[in-house]
Amino acid sequence: MHLALLATSTDIWHYALAVFLLLTGIGACFALVRAGMTLGRVNMVLDGVMKELVPMLAKVSTSLDHVNEELDKVGRITDSATDATAKVDATVRSVSEAISKPFRAVSGFTAGISHGFGVFKNKRDQRGGVV
Predict the structure, then answer these.
(1) What is the pLDDT of residues 28-56, one digit of tens each?
(2) 3-state DSSP helix/strand/coil percent for the chain, to nearest 5?
(3) Rounded to an integer, what distance in angstroms lies between the CA atom of residue 113 and that of residue 6?
(4) Where are the domains of the chain?
(5) CA-to-CA distance for 118 and 20, rounded, in angstroms?
């Protein structure tokens, strides 16, 4: 009977392995419970963030809509200024051309008279002063 109580080395390894697996299972359960609690806290934080973020995004969207409306107004103002500048440019060119035509005509007339007097003077000088 004394021999039946003694365990062999294989039995001791089996018992040690069983204790190891039991402790590993308990440790894994503890780690999973802690991870579950952490994920629960993360879920609560994300719910709080979502409750604050959604209204904030709605306000940002409204603000962007207003900014886009103002940019459209600025675009129309810029287009009007561009049109006005083009009209002023066309007017200045027309006035400049209208003013310069008579001056060109007078200049041509005086150049013709000057040329005529020059030719007259040259011919007079060639004839000895008598026309």
Answers:
(1) 999 999 999 999 999 999 999 999 988 89
(2) 95, 0, 5
(3) 148
(4) 13-124
(5) 130
Q: Is the model's pTM score more than 0.85?
A: no
Supply the DSSP string of 40-102, one letter for each residue: HHHHHHHHHHHHHHHHHHHHHHHHHHHHHHHHHHHHHHHHHHHHHHHHHHHHHHHHHHHHHHH
> What are the DSSP calls for 105-124, one per residue?
HHHHHHHHHHHHHHHHHHHH
The predicted-structure confidence for 12-23, as pLDDT tens digits, reads as follows 999 999 999 999
CB–CB of 131/124 below 8 Å?
yes
Ramachandran angles phi, psi of 8, nearest 5°:
-85, 170
Place of tokens 């809509």: 65
Buried b (16+ CB within 10 A) or exposed e, 62-91: eeeeeeeeeeeeeeeeeeeeeeeeeeeeee
